[in-house]
Structure formats: structure tokens, C-alpha cells
Amino acid sequence: MSKRAIVSVAALCAALAGSSIVIAQEAVIEEIIVTARKRAESLQEIPLSVTALSIDSIRQRNIQTIYDIAANTPNYHERKQLGRRLDAPIIRGQAGPSVFGERNASYFVDGVYVSGSVTSSTFAVVERVEVIRGPQSALFGRATFSGAVNMITRQASDEHEGSFSGRVGSHEDYQAAAWFSGPIIEDRLYYLVSANWENYGGEWNNGLLEGEAQNPRLFPSPFAPHIFSSAPTRGDDSPLGGESSWDGTLRLTFRPNDNHEFSFKYSYQGSEDDHFADLLFPQSGLNCFRPGEPGAGPMARGYYCGTMDPAGLVPKINIPDFEDGVTTFFGTAEPSPIIGKRRNIIRSYLQYVGNFNGWEVMGRYARNRDQNTDGRDLDRSPARPVFGLFTALEDNHVRDWSLEARLTSPSDRALRFLVGAYWLDIEGKGRDRRFTGPGFTGHFFHDDGGDFDGREVQNSAVFGQLEYDFADNLTLAVEGRYSKDEKSVYNSGLIEAGFAQGLEEDTTAFTPRFTLTYRANDDVTVYGLVAKGDKPLDFNQAFFDDDTPVSTIDAAIADGRAIIREEEAWTYEVGVKSTLMEDRLLFNVSGFYIDWTNQSTNGLTIIQTVNGPEPNNVVLSVPGAEVWGLEVESSWAVNENLLLTLGYGLADHEFTDYLDLEAAAQFGNDGDLKGNTTGGTPKHSMNLAATYRDELTADMDWFFRTIANYHSSVYSAAFNLAETGAPLIVNANLGIETDRWNLTLYVDNALDDDTPFNIGRFTDFYGPLLPNRQYAFQFGMIPRRGRAFGIRVYYSY
């Protein structure tokens, strides 16, 4: 679709102007209330592009993970990497770096910022999920450069109620959950408690054969000693990709009278995951830019051009080294205490909301703690490259706390405003120990007391919103946030380089949003907005590793390579929201253009370490990029039995100014990637759903529901050569239900689509050296879950 057509579609739809909405018995589409602008508003009246998935939609679509939320939302993609690790939300094609750097969109739970990932979160007490597209810096704050994902959990109630739910499916897919709520003191004090457990057994087994884990020599000579004097050579068929999660929540709400409310929430989440599954593409399959071929550059390492096929590939992870330990001339590594990932999360907040003659005061204090330990083989192969340095155990701790205060004026006046202040403090520290190799300690850090590297973020802000009704149907809103973001990073290398307190940098920014809303009638809302997104500068972590000498750190700081530049993006958007055919049809459309400066993306560079020059991933700043796009959401209650829904997203990203030195070295050109698109995100996304419901008895209905989710192929990188292909995932449900209970049979991925989630690129240390004395590139594919069947039950009272 051309850029002119995108704007034209948005304009033409002004005569008409969806989300996942349930059908009522009288064949109308029920209203959904959202809080995307920090107050309760109808989804059809808010002048933003928002997808809201209610608890009914979540249950009906068998949504179990944040990946399922993304699949059911236009222009929202979750980049899955290395199991439930390094995942990132991508909204409107604004992908950030796959490793290092910060996200371009962020998660929130009940409006509270989440500094880590939510991929291990469950939906046991989630009442609604709002995906808000476009910059949300003005009201949501930092790290909402391209949008926000807000998960709203169930409130405590003043009536005794509760529910039980369970699931049994193929691949050892189990779930059991319950929640209860009610009054402790009638009309004053209420509680909610919940518990949930979920398990997925995985669909893959390790395919490591006996003898595949070779013992390389110290240098290329048949007389050189082997690096490993003792190392396992056995095969391994361990299960891979399994995931287990559990969580519990306690919420207390105290209302001394109708005008004051105090809320306390405490939740705990735990998870245990197997080592992730990864399908390695063989070096023999590389089909372009091989050394000596026409078009190949001087440093060519081979590449794959086209759609990668995972058929016939099996994981070959070197699990025995973790389980048995190894011995080199550096020493002996004991068996790893963990293979896979262990994570524990605690989230809590205390909130007050008061009403003073229509003036609302809100104050909230929130704390989060996230600890995860990860034992993984990052080269994903039987090889033990660079003395086994890619086999590592990593320990990360993140703690954050925030304060927010808001004052909101009465909503029944022509002039309305909101003012607030915000403070956020994030402290992260981590350490890792390579399994063997230079710097080897002999034990894992659980025993050796290794030092932590760390980073801290402090963000302070004031924000506000001013709305004025020029007429009953015309409103102008001006929002803005002034913020200061202070970041610091510290480790032993920086201390030796003379930075006793670590390296510190700060960013100040003003992020406004201007919105004009016209209500043509009670059923049609037209809006236009201009908004700025800002992403604070950051540190290029690769220059601060423990093996980086002082001279390298000094040089990187001096020439600016150590710093990731501040990013800015201006978004221009028009949209129409309409409710037609006596509330039986919703049709919402929005068109947008994003002008993006200093987009951060991954690149490869040579860094001088204590062991010599080594290639490493860094974050590069691309001077210019743009995104043209469109979102369409519609729901049609054809009659009281049949509901149809449609969601479509277009995010046409293009680099407008990008010279890449690696592209020049690999592909024998000038490295100009202008006109290419960013990797890791699709251009098109679509979901279609049909639900048929009819009466079975006077008190019972039966239903059938089918959902198709599609997105276009995803490139692995900005080179636009290797790509995943386009998945089409079809799910179906058949069930019966009453007002109290529900029984559903389901099939997910009915077509058994095996399109990989993502393609990663790294170095193939297992294969032979190429003629130009380079190691070939290696591609790894993250496999998708196959066809699955099961049964779900739900009971409420």
C-alpha cells in the first residue's frame, strides 16, 4: 500500500468511523472502559489507537501468554529470543536492538511501570489488557517511546465471589487457578486472594550425538595439547523449551467512606524453564555472499538469502558440559547448579485515591524486585569455542521503586486539567561466570563470591494535561511531561579507568502531545494528534565488560562509541472511531506517520580486550528512519448468534539515512542501507475471528469460535536477506456454558505452522575456517509451538 493510500484510507473512513468485544444477548456490542489517559473513558470516545482485550476476550481466545496478546493486536509484535529472555514489545514497527539498550515500548501492571519482562506473567487475575499505540511519554513516562502495554488486574469486591479454572492439554500443558474476593468489614474493607500454576512440557528434545562435542587443540597443530583434559563426550536427549510458572496475589481495599479509598497489593511470581530450544542452520546451507563469490566483500563470512526453513533441524545444545563439568589447563569447572532459567518476582504497591467535591487526588508508592539466574549455552552448538566462553551462568537482580502523585479536576467542566509528579529509581546488578576460559575461577559465582557489575536509573518528572471544549463536539487537549533521566554504570574496569563512582550521564526532555477531537454525533469520533517520543541516551555495555582494558574504555568514551545516542520520534496521527447499525458494528481506523531520529540498532564491531581484538555486539545509532502505517479494528454483531471481528495493522518502516560498515565488509558494497527496513518486526499483521453461539437448553448455550492470526515475514537484520516466512496460526474452540461455568475443547495452531519466531545470527565456531580465514556466520531459529489440543474448565460464583 502506498503512503498516499494510507492517508487516504484514514480520511475516507471519516464517514464511518474495534477491539475484542463480547456480543450481548440483544445483538449489540458492549462498551469497554479503558484508562489509557489515566482516567476512565469509553474505548470508542478516547482519541487514541487502543486495543483493549477484556477478561471475556482473553478467555475466549485461549490467551495464555503476552505472545498471544501480541498475536491478537494489530501492529504489536513480541520478539521472542532465547526462551523467556530478552523479549521486547514492538509497536508500530519501532523495533529496538535485539540485545543491549532499552525497550521502545514498556509494560505496566495496574499503571505501574515494570522494568523487566512480563513473559513469565500469567493472566489468572488480569481483568483487561490495553495496548496503547504511539508515544505515551506525556502520561505514562519513560520507555514508552512507541507505546505502552498496561495489564489491569481484578479489584477486590464488596460481595463474596470467586472462580476456579483449569486446563489440560497436549505437550504436558496444565493450568490450575483460583481467586476469591469479598468483604472483611461490610462496606469498608475488602480482600482478593489468588493462586495460579501453569506448566508447559516443551516439544523438543536435545539431539546431541555422542562425540559431537569435540575437544579442540590449543593451537592448530596435531602435536598441540587438547584444551580440555577432561570433558564429556556423551550424547544428550534432555527435554528443551519447557516452562513452568506460578504466582499468588493479595489485594486489600479500604474505603472509610465514599470519597476515600486505600489499596494495597502484593504479588509473587516464580518460574523455572528448561534450556531454550534453538534450531541451527548448517553452514553448508549458506547460499549467498560466500568468500570469493561475485558480490562478496573482503570479510565475507557467508549468508543466507531468502526464507529459512526449520524442517529437519534438531537442537544440539552442549548440556553435558553443564551437568558433568569440565577440566582445562585453567582449572576444573564444577557442574552447573542450574541449566535453564530460574526467576522470582515480587511486586507491591500502596495507593490512595480521594475525591474532594469532584477533584480527585491520587498518590501511589510501588516496589518491584526481579531476580533471575540463567545457565545457557549461547553458541547453541556442540562446540566449545574460545575455551568454552559461550557456556555461562548469569545472575541478575533488578530492584525499582516509584512514587506518583496526581491531581485531576472535575470532569463535567469545559476546562479540565490534570497535573502530576513522578519519581522512579531502578537499580540493576548482574554477574556472570564463563564455564571455562581466561579469567576462569574454578567455581561458579554461587561459591566464588564474584563481584557484581551494576547500573542505576533515576527518573524524575512533572507532567500535565489541559483539555478545553470549544464546543459540545470539539475538544483540544494539550499534554506534556518534563523529565530528567540519570543513568550510571559501574564495574571493576571503570574503577580501574579512574571512574570511582562509575560512568554517569543524564538526559532532559520535554515530550508533548496535542490532540484535537471532533464528535460528529453520538456514534462517530474523529481525532488528530501530534506527539513526541523521547528515548534517553544509554551505555554501550560491550565496552564495559570485565575483560576490556582501561585504554579501550578511555578511547570509547573519548570518541563517543561508549554512549548510545538519545532518540526522538514525532508521530502524526489521524483516526476515526464509529459505532453503527444501532450498536451492532464498530469500525475504527487510524493512519500515522513517524519521523524517527537516531534509531538504535544492533551492529558488530571489533573491541580490543585483554585477550586481543574480539568481535562483539554493540548498539549503533541510525541517523534517520520513518514509519508509515495504518490500524483497522472492527466488530460486527451480525445477529444475536454470530459475532465477527477483524484487526489489521500496517507498519511500513524504512531507513532514510543509514551507512553500515559491516554491510560494506560483508557484501562488497558501500554499506548504504537506505530504503531497507528494520529487522525483528513484520510489516503486516492481521487477526480474524468468528464466534457462533446458540441456545442448547433454557439455561445453557453452546458456542464455536475460530481465530486466525497472521503476520508477514520478519527479517533477521537490517540487511534484509534472511527472513522467517509468514505464519498463519489458526485456533478453534468448541464448548458449552452457563452463567456459572464453561467447558471448552480447543485446538491451537490447527495447521501445525512451524514458521520460526525469530532468527538470530552469530559465529559458527564449530565449522571449518573459510578461505579468507574467517569463521562463517551461523543462524539459529527459535521454533514455534506446534499443534496442540486440550480442554479448559471455568467456574465462578
Task: Please describe what this structure looks like.
The protein has 797 residues and is mainly beta. The protein has a domain of 204 residues. The chain contains 9 helices and 43 strands. The strands form 9 sheets. The chain has a 22-stranded antiparallel beta barrel. The protein has a 5-stranded mixed β-sheet with strand order 3-8-9-6-7. A 3-stranded antiparallel β-sheet has the order 14-20-21. It is globular, with a radius of gyration of 27 Å.
Give structural attributes.
single chain; 797 residues; mainly beta; 22-stranded antiparallel barrel; five-stranded mixed β-sheet; 9 helices
Q: What value does the average pLDDT take?
A: 88
Question: Main β-sheet, in a few words?
Answer: 22 strands, antiparallel, barrel
Estimate what percentage of residues fall within beta strands.
over 45%
Number of strands: 43
